UniProtKB/TrEMBL annotation:
Domain of life assignment: Bacteria
Keywords, alphabetical: DNA-binding, Transcription, Transcription regulation
Pfam families assigned to the protein according to its UniProt record, in alphabetical order: DeoRC (PF00455), HTH_DeoR (PF08220)
PROSITE patterns: HTH_DEOR_1, HTH_DEOR_2
GO molecular function, one term: DNA binding
Protein name as catalogued: DeoR/GlpR family transcriptional regulator of sugar metabolism
PANTHER family: AGA OPERON TRANSCRIPTIONAL REPRESSOR-RELATED (PTHR30363:SF44), HTH-TYPE TRANSCRIPTIONAL REGULATOR SRLR-RELATED (PTHR30363)
HTH deoR-type domain: residues covered: 3-58
Source lineage: Bacteria, Pseudomonadati, Pseudomonadota, Alphaproteobacteria, Hyphomicrobiales
Organism: Rhizobium lusitanum
Amino acid sequence: MKREERQQSIINLLVEHKTVDLDDLADRFVVSKMTIHRDLDDLEQAGVLRKVRGGATIDAGTQFESDFRFRERQGHEEKLAMARRALELVEPGMTVMVNDGSMAAVLGEMLLEKRPLTLITNNAAIIDRMRNESGITLIALGGVYSAKFNAFLGVVTEEALSRLRADIAFLSTPAISGRLAYHMDDNVVRAKRAMIASAAKSCLLVNHQRIGHTALHVMADLADFDAIITDRAPDAETLERFRRDDIALTIASTQDMT
């Protein structure tokens, strides 16, 4: 098996299991552990996985977020439920900002129900989907393309956002702890902050499994958001802390979709 084929097989295993074991991979592909180490090093350098003791994972860490190709395949029903609740905040005629990420891409698809809209986004999946849709005035933010996040980021993106204004911005985050939202990539953080600053209102979308975790960079205080939507209620202690801090949390159940 060629190296590229073996590495693709490792990616497929990660999609299915989220973690892989070094010894198991060596046995599966009948190669040395050193060869697997080099494969994992290559994939980690490409931002596809995070090496851990004895193997690798696509679970997020404080300095790692898995590749967009993994995230778009995970938790689709939960994303649909959150996007449906977020859509309630949109009215025809609005100017809407949507950030990078697989969660945002699901919401972007649903925004067609609310046209006519002006849509501002750096999300390449949304740009590709919306570019030929009638009733959507699409403002595609330029910048440096990131394959890992499938989005445009950097100084050009931030400069463009500083000259635009929206009625509402929808943002996602891989980590919430206490009253702070976090992200592990500084370019993504700056783009999200620029969207918050350029929108009259902002809404944060977060999977319940990401609550109680941190990442390298503080993105925003939860009080900065007019709405926070998650797919399932967090633990009682977290709910009480949100209540005490007067932070409104909307629970979007998948049962709402039936």
